[in-house]
Amino acid sequence: MIALLLRDLRLAVRAGGGFGLGLAFFLIVVTLVPFGVGPEGGVLARIASGVLWLGALLACLLSLDRIFALDYEDGTLDLLVTAPIPLEGAVSMKAAAHWITTGLPLVLAAPVFGVLLHLPAPAYLWLVVSLLLGTPALSVLGTFGAALTVGLKRGGLLLSLLVLPLYVPTLIFGAELVRRGAAGMEVRVPLLMLAGITAATIALVPFASAAAIRVNLRQA
Amino acid sequence: MIALLLRDLRLAVRAGGGFGLGLAFFLIVVTLVPFGVGPEGGVLARIASGVLWLGALLACLLSLDRIFALDYEDGTLDLLVTAPIPLEGAVSMKAAAHWITTGLPLVLAAPVFGVLLHLPAPAYLWLVVSLLLGTPALSVLGTFGAALTVGLKRGGLLLSLLVLPLYVPTLIFGAELVRRGAAGMEVRVPLLMLAGITAATIALVPFASAAAIRVNLRQA
Amino acid sequence: MMPELGKYAVTVLGSYVATVALLAGLVALSLWKGAKVKRALARQEERMRKNG
Amino acid sequence: MSIWEYANPVKFMKTSSLVLPWATGLAAACLIGGLIWGFFLTPDADNFGSTVKVIYVHVPAAMMAINIWVMMLVTSLIWLIRRHHVSALAAKAAAPIGMVMTLIALITGAIWGQPMWGTWWEWDPRLTSFLILFLFYLGYMALWEAIDNPDTAADLTGVLCLVGSVFALLSRYAVLFWNQGLHQGATLSMDSAQHISDVYWFPLLLCIAGFILFFVALVLLRTRTEIRLRRLKALEQRERMA
Amino acid sequence: MTMLSVDNLSVTRGGLPVLEGVSFTLGAGRALVLRGPNGIGKTTLLRTLAGLQPALAGTVSMPAETMAYAGHADGLKAMLSVRENLRFWADVYATPDIAPAIEQMNLRALADRAAHSLSAGQKRRLGLARLLVTGRPIWVLDEPTVSLDAASVALFGTAVRAHLAAGGAALMATHIDLGIPEAEVLDLAPFKARPPEQGGFRGSFDEAFG
Amino acid sequence: MTMLSVDNLSVTRGGLPVLEGVSFTLGAGRALVLRGPNGIGKTTLLRTLAGLQPALAGTVSMPAETMAYAGHADGLKAMLSVRENLRFWADVYATPDIAPAIEQMNLRALADRAAHSLSAGQKRRLGLARLLVTGRPIWVLDEPTVSLDAASVALFGTAVRAHLAAGGAALMATHIDLGIPEAEVLDLAPFKARPPEQGGFRGSFDEAFG
Ligand code: HEM
Ligand SMILES: Nc1ncnc2c1ncn2[C@@H]1O[C@H](COP(=O)(O)OP(=O)(O)OP(=O)(O)O)[C@@H](O)[C@H]1O
Ligand SMILES: Nc1ncnc2c1ncn2[C@@H]1O[C@H](COP(=O)(O)OP(=O)(O)OP(=O)(O)O)[C@@H](O)[C@H]1O
Ligand SMILES: [Mg+2]
Ligand SMILES: [Mg+2]
C-alpha cells in the first residue's frame, strides 16, 4: 500500500503536477482576486480568509479529476481491484498522495499569501490551523467525487458539481475559525467541528469511494 | 469544420460536460463566496462584479483541460491533423464549441447570479456586455494552454498556471468595465480595450495553438 | 565600522541578507547541478568509449 | 566568420570556458565593490533615512528581472527561427535567474514598503506587474520541467515565451489603468531635472554593472550545464538504441 | 488437480446476457484457449472470472488470491520507466524480485526507458512481464499477443510453458495463434445467450419487469 | 501509375534515427505490407509518411490530399454512436454517404450503439469503416487487423481488394496475416539505422555537437 503512495507521489512529481503547481495556482488565484474586486486594502482584508479558503478548495478541485481517471483509462484500476490489497486502503492512499501534493504545501505557504491580501495579524495562526485540519477532508471527499465520475470522459465540471456541496461544511467552519480567531473570539466550536468532520470523513468516506469504483468497473 | 463544431457540442452534451454544468459550477462558486467572506450585503455588493468575473474564469478553466487531451488520447488528433481541414480552423472551432458550452450560458445567466450577490442595479447591463466581450478571449486562450499541455497526463494544474496569467488583461478590463459602468463613469477605454484584446486574440492565438499541437504530435 | 542605520536597521539588513541569500542559493544550486551533470556526462562518455 | 558560429555547442563550450573566469571575476569585483560602497560609504537621504541603501539591491534586481525576460524572448525567437540548440538552452538557463531576480525585487520591495508605506504589500501597479512577471517565469519553468523531449520542450516554451511576452506587456498597461500607485517614478532617467544625487548614482551604477555581469557569468555557467545535460540525454538514448 | 472450475456460468454485459451455460475446469499445468468471433463475450467472461463484474448465474470456484488478470489495456504508467512499472506491481503483490521477469520478456535493454517511449509491441511485452511478477498460479489473459512480432510470441509461449511446468494454469482469449499447441481450445460460439423467448435469461431489467 | 514514391527516407523517433535509406514506390492497384520486429520503426515510418512528423532525410512524394492514415488508436468517440462517428469523418472528408462503409464492415446491427459499448474487435471494425468514408486513394494503415476474428479479417481483405480494384493503393504494417496474398512485402529489418560510427545519421543534437 505504501508502494501505491510512493508511486502516486512519483507520478505527481514526474507528470507536471507536483508540489509546486498547487502552490502556484493558489498564488495566481490570490493575485487575481484584487483585479476582480479592486485593490483597496480594507475590502481585501475583510474577505482575505474567505479567499484563501476558496483558493485552497479550488486548487484541490483542479488537481482532482484525474486522480482515478488516469488509472481507469490505462487499465491500472482493473488490475488494482484484482490485486491483493483492499481497495479501501488503495483509495485512502490515493487521497493521502493528493493531500501531500496539494493540501500540505498550501498549509505551509498560506501565511505568505495572507500578506498579499492584508490578512490581519492575529489571523495567521488560525489560518494555518484551520487549513491543516480541513484540507485532508477536502482530499478525501475529492477522491469520493473522482470515484463517482471515473467512467466519464470530461468528468471535470461534473466532479466539481458533486464535490463542492460536500465541501460546504468544511469551508464554513474553516473560514469561521479564521474569522473568530482573528477577532479574538471563542474558537472551540468551529475548531472541534472542523476536526470532527475531517476525522469522520477520513474514517468513513473511503468505503463509499471504493464501492463507487467497484460499481463503475462492473460495466467497463 | 462545422462538423467539428457540431461534434464537439454533441459530445459536450452527451459526456456530462454540457451547457448546464458550467452554469452549475458558477452557481456553486457564487453560493460559496458568502460562506467564505461572510454574508454582509455591503461587502458582497462591493465584490460582486469581481466574483462573477472570477467565477466565469474558473468555470472556463475547469472545462478546459480535456479540450484536446481526449482527442489526443483516442487518436482523433492524429487523424484530424491529416484530414483536409486546416488545423488552425479546427482549433478555432474547438474554442468556439467551448465558448458556446461555457461562456455563452454564463453571459446569459450572470444577471441572475448578480442578484444573489446584491449587485447594484446599473451594473447588470455592463456585466452582460463585459462577459459577452471578454469570455471568447478566455476560451481561445484556454485552447492555447490546452494545446501546450496536450501531451501531458495530469496537465490540469499546469494548464491553469500557464493560462491564468494570460487572462489578467481580460479580467482587469472586464471587471473594471462593470465597476465603472455601475458607478456611471466613463467606460470607453475598458470597453475598447476589452473588445480589442478579444478580437486580436481570436485572430492570432489559434496559429500559436495549432503550432503547439503540431509540435506535440511530432513526438507522439 | 558598521554604519549607523537607526530605526531602519532591520529593513536595510533584511534586504541585503535576503538578496545575498537568494543569489548565493542560486549560485550554489547552479554549481552543484553543473558538477553533477559534468560527472554524469564524463561517466557516460567513458562507458560508450569502452563499449565501442 | 558569422556570429552564428557561436551557436555551435562545441564552439560555445570553448569560448565560454575562456570568458567565464573573467566574467565571474569582474562580476564579483563590481558587485562587492558596489554593495560595499553603497552600504558603508553613502549618507542617509532626507526622505528615506537609511533605507535608501536598499536601492542598491532593489533597483538592479528589478531591472534584471525585466531584461532577462527580454533576453529569453530573443533567444527563444532565435531557436524558433534558426533552430540553434544553444539559443534554446540559454533561455532555459536564464529563466531561474530571472525568477530569482524578480523574487529579490519583490522581497526587498516588501521589506522596504513596511517602513515607507506602512504596509508589506500594496496593489500598486509596479508591484503588481512584478507579481505577474513572477507568474510568467513560474509557468515558463514549469513547462520546461513537464515535457521530457528536449526539442519539444524548447519549441513549446518558445511559443509560450512569445505569447506570454505580448500578454505581459498588455497586463502592464491593464494594471496601470486599474490602479494608480504609490511607487517611485523612474528617477534613473538621464534627465538631470529629476536625477538622483550623484552620491547614490555612482554606487548604484556599479551595482547595476555588477548584477549584469553576475547574470552573464551565471547564465554562461548554467548554459554549459544545460548543453552537457542535452548531450548526456542524446548519448543515453543512442546507447539504448544500439 | 483442479485449480479453477466454472459451472454453468452466464455472464452479462450492459445488462444483457451475452453467454450462458459455460462450464469448464482448469487443472494445474493446463492451458485453455477461448475462441469465438468478435463480440461473443470473451472479454466479458474473463472479467467475470476476475471478479470485476458479477455473474448472472452459475458458479466460479477457485482458491482466494490465486488469479492474475491482464486485459486489453496493459495498466502501464507512461511516465514511469519499465523497471519502475514492474517494481510497483511487484510491491503490490509482495514478490521480491523483478529481474527474472525482465529477463524472460527480453526487456533488459529497455529497463530504464519510460513506458511512453516504447513501441506498441514493447508495451505489450511489459504488460506480460507484469504477470510474471504477480507470482499468481492462475493466469487469465485477454488477447495477450496483440501487436507482438513472431519472436515475442515465441517468448510468450516459452513463458506460458514455464508457468505451466511450475504447476500454474492459464486461461487465454485470442483470435490468433499463441504458439502453444498443447493448449486445449474452447469455442464460445455455442454458448451465445439465447433470447428469452427461447428460454434464455432475461436482462436485469426485463426480469424485474415481468 | 505511381501514386506514392519514397526515396532514401530516414526517420527519427525521440530525436534519434530509427530507419534509414528506405525507398519504395506504390502504384495504383498495389498493396505493400511492411514487416519487421517490434520496435524497428514501422509506426514511425507511417507517421512520417502521414506528415505527422518531419523526415530526417530523403523525400516522400505523393499528390496532395490523397492519403488516409489509421494508426494504433482508432480515433473513436466513446459517447457517439457508430453512425455518428462515421458521419463526423464523412463530413470532415466531405464524402456524401456512410451507408456503404457500414455495409462493407458489417456494422449494420451495431449502427446505433455507442462506441464505448463495442467489443475490441467491433471497435476496430469501426476504425476501418472510417477509412472507407475518407474516399482517399492511398491508405496508410498501422496493424489494421489487431483484435479482429477470422471473419472480420476476411472482410477487411475484401475491402482492401475492392479499394485496389478501384485504383487505390494500400501501405500496411503488420505482424500477422492480413489475408491479402497478392500484396508485396517489404521487410524493414535491413533498414535499421546504423550508429554514427558506421556512417549512420547522427541524432539532432549530436549533430550540432560534434
Ligand atoms: C514588492 C515591491 C516592489 C517592486 C516589485 C518594485 C519594483 C521596482 C522596479 C521595477 C524598479 C525599477 C524602476 C526603473 O528602473 O524604472 C524600482 C525602483 C525603485 N523602487 Fe521599487 N518596487 C517595490 C517596492 C518598493 C518600495 C516599497 C519602495 C520604497 C518606498 C521602492 C522604492 C524604489 C525606488 C526609490 C526605486 C528607484 C526609482 C528609480 O529611480 O527608478 N520600491 N522598483
Ligand atoms: N457497455 C456495454 N453495453 C452494452 N453492450 C456492451 C457493452 N460493452 C460490450 N458490449 C457488448 O457485449 C458483447 C460482448 O463483448 P466482449 O467485449 O466481451 O466481446 P469479446 O468476445 O471480447 O470480443 P473481441 O474479440 O472483439 O474482444 C459485445 O457484443 C459487445 O458489443
Ligand atoms: N517517445 C520516444 N522516445 C524515444 N524512443 C521512442 C519513443 N517512441 C518510440 N521510441 C522507440 O522508437 C522505436 C520505433 O518505434 P515504433 O513505434 O516505430 O516501432 P514499431 O515498428 O511500430 O513497433 P511495433 O511493432 O511494436 O508497433 C522503438 O524502438 C521505440 O522504442
Ligand atoms: Mg475482447
Ligand atoms: Mg507500431
UniProtKB/TrEMBL annotation, chains A, B:
GO terms for molecular function: heme transmembrane transporter activity. It is a multi-pass membrane protein. The chain crosses the membrane at residues 12-37, 43-64, 96-117, 123-150, 157-178, 190-213. One of its GO terms (biological process) is cytochrome c biosynthetic process. Pfam families: CcmB. GO terms for cellular component: plasma membrane. Belongs to the CcmB/CycW/HelB family. NCBIfam families: ccmB. Required for the export of heme to the periplasm for the biogenesis of c-type cytochromes. This is Heme exporter protein B. It comes from Paenirhodobacter ferrireducens. The gene is ccmB.
From TrEMBL, chain D:
It is a multi-pass membrane protein. One of its GO terms (cellular component) is plasma membrane. The chain crosses the membrane at residues 20-41, 61-81, 93-115, 127-147, 159-179, 199-221. Its main location: membrane. GO terms for biological process: cytochrome complex assembly. It holds the Pfam family Cytochrom_C_asm. GO terms for molecular function: heme binding; heme transmembrane transporter activity. InterPro entries: Cyt_c_assembly, Cyt_c_biogenesis_CcmC, Cyt_c_biogenesis_CcsA/CcmC. Coiled coil: none annotated. Signal peptide: none annotated. Residues 4-183 form the Cytochrome c assembly protein domain. Keywords: Cell inner membrane, Cell membrane, Cytochrome c-type biogenesis, Membrane, Transmembrane, Transmembrane helix, Transport. Required for the export of heme to the periplasm for the biogenesis of c-type cytochromes. Belongs to the CcmC/CycZ/HelC family. This is Heme exporter protein C. It comes from Paenirhodobacter ferrireducens. The gene is ccmC.
TrEMBL record, chains E, F:
It is an enzyme of class 3 (hydrolase). This is Heme ABC exporter ATP-binding protein CcmA. The gene is ccmA. Residues 4-210 form the ABC transporter domain. Its EC number is 3.6.3.41. Coiled coil: none annotated. PROSITE patterns: ABC_TRANSPORTER_1 (PS00211), ABC_TRANSPORTER_2 (PS50893). GO terms for molecular function: ATP binding; ATP hydrolysis activity; transmembrane transporter activity. GO terms for biological process: cytochrome complex assembly. It comes from Paenirhodobacter ferrireducens. Keywords: ATP-binding, Cytochrome c-type biogenesis, Hydrolase, Membrane, Nucleotide-binding, Translocase, Transport. The keyword Iron-sulfur does not apply. SMART domains: AAA (SM00382). InterPro entries: AAA+_ATPase, ABC_transporter-like_ATP-bd, ABC_transporter-like_CS, ABC_transptr_haem_export_CcmA, P-loop_NTPase.
